[in-house]
From TrEMBL:
Xref: SUPFAM superfamilies: Nitrous oxide reductase, N-terminal domain (SSF50974)
InterPro entries registered for this protein in UniProt: N2O_reductase_N, WD40/YVTN_repeat-like_dom_sf
Organism of this sequence: Nonomuraea ferruginea
Region feature Disordered, mapped onto this chain: 234-255, 283-306
Protein name listed in UniProt: WD40 repeat domain-containing protein
Composition bias, Basic and acidic residues: 295-306
Transmembrane residue ranges: 34-56
Lineage of the organism: Bacteria, Bacillati, Actinomycetota, Actinomycetes, Streptosporangiales
Amino acid sequence: MTRLLRETMEEWAGQAEVPHDLADRALRRRRRGLLPAGAALLAAAVIAAVAVFVTVQPPGPVLPAVTVTLPPRPSPAPTDVRADPDHGRPTKLVAAGNLAVGAYYTLRREKGENGLDHVRRTWHLYDPRTDSYEETPWAWVDVAPGMRVAAVVQGDLLGDRIGVIDLDTRQFLSWIQLGRRAGHVAWSPDGTKLLATTYSSYPDELPTDGVAWRRKDSPRTGYYLIDVPTGRAEHHALPPLPGTDGPPSNSNGRQDLGWSLDGSLIWGPTMISSPERVYYGLDGRPAEPPPGEAFNRHGESKISPDGRLELGPDGLPTAIIERRTGKVAGSQNVLQLIGWADDEHVIALGCAGGCENEFRNGLVLVSVDGRTTVPLTGVQESQEDGSWRWVLTPR
């Protein structure tokens, strides 16, 4: 698989647009935002909760789904490189090595109530029948590892029903009725469970008049753990991280929860560097971070599949570090290192030309030594309305 990636990248290397001569920008750009408008609110899509004792609440009127058999993951999983460099927003599958763009969303701002606007996501889900992405009406979408099924939140912004859809047939295998509204859903690493974060009101809001504003408290109420084959769902109350007290603290309305790498814990990041994340058992009780686990801002593991290397922070350029020695294994002329395609290549956010405008960017595949960069998508204006945001899925 590594050889296939290397050969593909060598073949395409001459076509890549690689930024150059910009090392002097690294320090002043490292902390600058690189995401679309409203991203300061949206980048915290997996932010965690305060470390307090939490109790399991009765599931309420949760109706179990019909028992279903999930399709098996492909074995062996595909590892080829799939690109759509002619389009800023992909029209066909984008994938490299271990990871694929299973879904993506675009952003738009719409008028809400009480002087607040909503920032709405429009989701696009991979369709293997056409090898393209299909616009959907769902409030949230997540594709399971293996790219065979997806989970969707049905509703307008928030929803009280989660569906599990077969990507090949486009038929729903199961519907899980919830007693509380969810605004986010995430598959477990083994692809058998769902984690759905619940909210009392929509968390992604901005003031209509554009005045700087911080929400006093997040409307998060807790989360559901759902066993997909049986449809059993249990709700756990979990208050949000406070916006002003702490540390740790978080002033974002959206405080979605995510899975640890082995699926034994749940977590979410804070707005401080230490700790970057707080962990909980599946029952919501505070837990110690798993040893050796490290995530980047995109929710992907920083550690290479073979455990030797670690992704460095955002920059221009970026760096990949040898974990044993702490030495720089390679420097890359990209904006962000996103996720490991294999032990020698990383999916990254690159910028056009000489990177005169860092907001003209797109996905690339870059080697650890930084010598080869291959465009996976075309370039978009990431600050414009309708800009897209990828969601990576293990293949």
